[in-house]
Amino acid sequence: MLSAQTWEREDVGFGEIQNRAKELASVPYVAPNRDEIPQWMARLSYDQYRDIRFNPGQALWAQDNRPFRMMMFHPGYLFREPVVLNEFTSSHQQRIRFAEAYFQYGPLVGERGVLPGDGGFGGFRLHAPINRADVFDELIVFQGASYWRALGKAQRYGLSARGIAVNTGIEGVEEEFPAFREFWMKKPEPGETQARFYALLDGPSCSGAYAFKVMPGEETEVHVRAVLFVRSGMRRFGVAPLSSMYWFGENSRRCFDDFRPEVHDSDGLAIHLGSGERVWRPLANETGKVELSFFSMDACKGFGLLQRDRRFVAYEDDEAAYHLRPSVWIEPKSDWGSGRVMLLEIPATNELGDNIVALWEPANAPQPGQRLDFSYVQKWTMDPDPSKALGNVCATRTGVHDWEPGRRSMVVEFAGGALEELTGDAPTLFVEASGSNADKVRFEIPTVHQLPDKRWRATFHILPQGDGVTLESIGPVELRACLKRGEDFLTETWAYRITP
């Protein structure tokens, strides 16, 4: 194990990180120098960067046989703003300094130049036994701005989380990407079941201190506390943002030339309102333009981007393994107050980049000089229904027949919860339109019946209201539907925006 570091006697606590963030926010923002790293690192191509690998024998805490191990990412390529890493115990801390021996340089890298004398890293990842007791699997990765990804048992990397979102989805305003500049990693004790660390975030509009607690398992939990200090005004302030990819699925009307039936990291947004209502909004990529959806509430009990369809045959991709991509469910652990969940859907023509964002936007915009404190837990899970609805939406389908061009068929399928034990008559479908175009459509032939695999299929048709009106001329319509028996709700609420 490399030992270029020197332990210093110093207590490290969340209060000290908060003081650092407050001091940063009290002075004008200074952007990091992206040209500070040696030019040979900055010029690394994608393939060259991938040919630099961490030497597993140098993993932090491996020789001490601790329950977690840390490996670092090399600076360079897109990651040109070195991140400072520190290690601490209950009484001491030390800076983890960059050293060439940490890495294995493949043949694509070619001739290397000077190394940074006191440089940081491109990020880090933690490893822990998740799938087998004798194998340290990747658990969580921090690399780039304030982004991270985590894994539970039998999961594959998919969507990402980040520390904060600033001015996301506002037309004509450049989005900010505050970044984690420094981390303090607590050296795990023998037998410890959680990894703990702190982070310092800085950006043009705010600075912040973050406390993380990561608990690996069947579903991995990431507990987050963020204390932020506002430097300047923000048009949009997003808490607990998630980024994902949705190209096409069973609800897609646009055709893509691809061998797979579906391609997405997430297939819907789930929300648990303070009122008790659960909402499911299937993701879409239909209109060719940016779509914003907002769900206002007095209080939020949880929200998340989920991958509900776990069938391999839904994707037929044994390399990308979309059926094993985790869902992320977020539950507030402090009082977030009133606000709204925002969903941003960006047009996509391939699967190479994230085009979906979900976040919590407080009702009151933060003001310069303000201190903000948010706590929440993320669950990286395979659970199709972490909000514990009575029954959940498992598919959304739609189509128009050539012989009935003035009528669009909608099919929504529900499963689970109280529906599993339902006997007697079929439940009742409740469906309505909302928004500015609600009075321009009507519904016909709502039916509900059970499929052989115990799913309940609800179907209805959308027609234009009035003579001489076509579906195409109406514009987008907001739809809501659920299954009921009498006055009792049996399912979550399906919420969908469609251009008939």
Description:
The chain has 3 helices and 34 strands. It is mainly beta and 500 residues long. The protein folds into 3 domains: 1-150 and 171-228, Beta-galactosidase, Chain A, domain 5, CATH 2.70.98.10; 236-388, Beta-galactosidase, Chain A, domain 5 (Distorted Sandwich); 392-498, Immunoglobulin-like (Sandwich), CATH 2.60.40. The strands form 5 sheets. The protein has a 16-stranded mixed beta sheet that branches. Strands 3, 7, 8, 9, 10, 11, 16, 21, 24 and 25 form a 10-stranded antiparallel beta sheet that branches. A 4-stranded antiparallel beta sheet has the order 27-28-31-30, with no helix packed on it. Strand 32 and strand 33 (488-489) form a beta hairpin. The radius of gyration is 25 Å and the shape is elongated. The model has no long low-confidence stretch (mean pLDDT 94).
